[in-house]
Amino acid sequence: MDKLVIEGGKPLSGTVAIQGAKNAALPILAASMLVNGTVIIDHVPDLLDIDVMLDILRDLGCRAEQIGPSVILDTASADSCHIPEWLMGQMRSSIFLMGPLLARFGRVEIYQPGGCAIGERKIDIHLRGLQSLGAVIEEDGNRIVCRAAKLKGADVHLDFPSVGATENIMMAAVLAEGITTISNAAREPEIQDLQHFLNLMGANIIGAGTDTITVEGVRSLVPCRYRIIPDRIVTGTLMVAAAATRGSITLQNANPSHLTSLIHVLRRAGVQVTVDGDIMKVGGASRPKAVERVVTSPYPAFPTDLQSQVMVLLALADGVSVMKETIFEGRFKHVDELTRMGADIRVDLNSAVIRGVPRLYGATVEATDLRAGAALVIAGLAAQGKTVVEQVHRIDRGYDRIETMLGRLGARISRYSSVSNNRVVPG
Ligand SMILES: CC(=O)N[C@H]1[C@@H](OP(=O)(O)OP(=O)(O)OC[C@H]2O[C@@H](n3ccc(=O)[nH]c3=O)[C@H](O)[C@@H]2O)O[C@H](CO)[C@@H](O)[C@@H]1O
Ligand SMILES: C=C(OP(=O)(O)O)C(=O)O
After folding, report:
1. Which of 76, 148, 296, 416 could form a disulfide with 304 if both were Cys (CB 3.0 to 4.6 A apart)?
2. 3-class SS shares of the chain: helix, strand, coil, % to 5
3. In the predicted model, is pLDDT for residue 54 greater than 80?
4. C-beta 307 within 6 A of ligand 1
5. Per-domain residue ranges for the chain?
C-alpha cells in the first residue's frame, strides 16, 4: 500500500478549489439506475470509492466512463439486479444500489456492504424502510434478497436519522405508486443534492434538508446532466489543516453554509474564518485555544466526519478539550497514532479528553480509516520532523490526490508507491 511522507512544521498558504462531494456523488451515481438512458454527472472527484461504484454499475450492465471530473453513465443496457459479494464488500456505499435496483427490476440480490471499520454499521433502518414500501426481504447469512413487484408509497418513520437509509428510501420511493413520507429523515446537504438531481430527472420530492421528506411517485424519469456540490468534509479538513499549521489559506468553490458548526468550533479555538460567497479564508497565526466540548451529531450539528481532524487541532491547543463521538462507536482509532506523535489524549467510552501539547513530533503512523488518515496527515503537517502515513488507500477513498492538493498549499508531502517504493510524481 502507498504511503505519504510529510516534512512537518511549514504553515500552509495559498489557494485551492474544493473537489466535488464523495457523499453526494455516490448516491447520485446509484440513483442514475432509476432512469433508462445516459446521464452526465459533473464535478465528480477521482476517488477509490467512485471507481468501485463505477465497477458495480458496469457489473450491472451499464456503460460508465469517467473523463476528468465528468462521469458519463449509460444505464439503458443494465440487465442485472445482483451485486457480487466481492464488490459489495469494497465499500459501505454499495448499499445505495438497493433502493434503485429494487425500484427498477422489482428485485435486488446483494450482500452486506463493506467499508471502513468505524463501527457496526447495521442496515436495519434501510431494510425496515423498504419493507414499509412493500418489499419482501430474505436474509441468508451475508446475502440479502429483496423483492417487490411494485413498491407502494407509505409513511416511513426512521428510528434514527440515518443518512444512507434516508437516501435509499427516497430513491426507492421515486417510482413507487403513491406518496411516501419519511419522518425523522437525515438533513445532510448531500440529501438535498440527491433531491435536486432526482427532481431534475422528473421526480417529485420536497423536504430534503428538513426532517420530513415527501416523495410523490412518478411513472418514469428522464436523463439529465448534473453538477455535484462541493465536499464539505474536504473543505473542513483543509480549514483545520490551515489552523493546525498556523497558516493562511483561501478555499474556492466552497459552500460555507454547509460548515456552520465547524466554523463555530474553529472561531471558539481562536481561528480566523472569513466568508465571501463561495470563498473562505482561514488563518491561524497563533496557538489554538482549547474548546471545552465538541459533540458529533447528525447535521446541522458537528459532523463525525470531521471529528478526528479537529481532534488534531485540539491536541495542539492551549488547555483541555473534550470531544464526544455519538455517531460511530469505533471512531477513535486515530488516538493511539496521535499519542505516538506526542498528543495527550485519554479516551473514556465515547469521549476523548484532550490535553493540548505545544507540539507534535513526526512518527510512522497508520491511516486506520479514511478520516483518521486525514487527521494523521494534518498532524504530520503540523508536527516537528518527518511523519510517514501508511495505508494511504484508505485516504484515497475520500480525498482526490491529497498530496497534490496539499502540495499546492506549500506542504512538503510526497507519495511513495507500495509497488516500486519510488516517489510518485503528481500528474
Ligand atoms: C456515503 C455517506 O454518505 N457516508 C456518510 C453517511 O454514512 P451512513 O449513511 O452509513 O451513516 P448513517 O447516518 O446511516 O449512520 C449513522 C449511525 O446509524 C447507524 N445505523 C445506520 C443505518 C442503519 O440501518 N442502522 C444503524 O444502526 C450506524 O451504525 C451509525 O452508528 O453518514 C455518516 C454520518 O454522518 C457519515 O459519517 C458518512 O460519511
Ligand atoms: C465514513 C465515511 O464514509 P463511508 O460512509 O463511505 O464509509 C466518511 O466519508 O468519512
Report:
1. 296
2. 35, 30, 40
3. yes
4. no
5. 3-19+230-424, 22-227
Question: Domain 3-19+230-424, what architecture?
Answer: Alpha-beta prism (3.65)
Average pLDDT over every residue of 5-19: 98
- Cβ–ligand 1 contact at 126 (below 6 Å): yes
DSSP code for 282: E
pLDDT > 70? residue 128: yes
Per-residue DSSP letter, 19: P
The residue among 158, 165, 153 whose CA lies nearest residue 211 is 158
Q: How far apart are CA 131 and CA 135, in angstroms?
A: 4
Of all protein residues, the one whose alpha carbon is nearest to atom 37 of ligand 1 is 305
Predicted confidence (pLDDT) per residue in 170-213, tens digit: 999 999 999 999 999 999 999 999 999 999 999 999 999 999 99
- The CATH number given to 22-227 is 3.65.10.10
Residues 21 and 230: beta-carbon distance below 8 Å: yes
Q: What does the alpha-carbon distance between residue 272 and residue 239 come to, in Å, rounded to a whole number?
A: 10
The pLDDT value recorded for residue 426 is: 66
Report the alpha-carbon angle 186-347-402, nearest 5.
60
ipTM, two decimals: 0.99
Retrieve residue 113's grid coordinates.
456492504
Residue 118 Cα to ligand 2 middle (Å): 9
- pTM of the entire predicted model: 0.98
